Amino acid sequence: MAGRAHADAGSEGLPQANVKRVVKEKLAELAHEHFDDDRKEKDVLVNKDALLAFSESAKIFIHFLSATANEICRESKRQTINADDVLKAVEELDFPEFCEPLKAALAGFRKENDAKKQDSKRKEVARKRKAGDSNGTDGDIHVNGRLDEAVTMAEDEGFTD
Fold first, then answer.
1. Residue 86 resides in a domain
2. What is the largest CA-CA distance in the chain?
C-alpha cells in the first residue's frame, strides 16, 4: 500500500530529475557563498525522501499560487491567467521578495521569445526570397500583386523608417 501512495504522488508531481537539479544547484550555490573559495566543494547529496518533500512542497505552492492567480483573473472578469496575475498572486501570498527576480526572469523570457520570433520571421523572408530566386528571378523583389509582403520584407531589412 505504501508503494501505491508513493506512485500516486509521483504521477501527479513534478519531474524528479528537474526537482533534483534545481535543489542541487541551489544548495551548491549556497555552499559556495557560505564557505571559502579555497575549500574543495563536494557534490551535495539529497536523499529520496527529501526530494519527494521538495517536490510535494513545490506542487502545493504551485496549486496555491494558481488558485490565487485565478481569483485575481476572475475579479478582473477574464478567463485567462496572465503573468501579471501570477505576480500579483505572489505579492498577495506575502512573497514580495520574489517579485523583482520574477519580473526580471519574465523580461528575459519575453526578450528571448521576441528574438526567436524575429529570427523565424527572417528565415521565412529568406525562404520566400530563395523560392523566388529559384523561379527564374534575378534576386530582385518582384511584387506580383503582393505589395504588403514586399513592404514587410523591406521593413525587416531596415529599408523603411
1. yes
2. 73
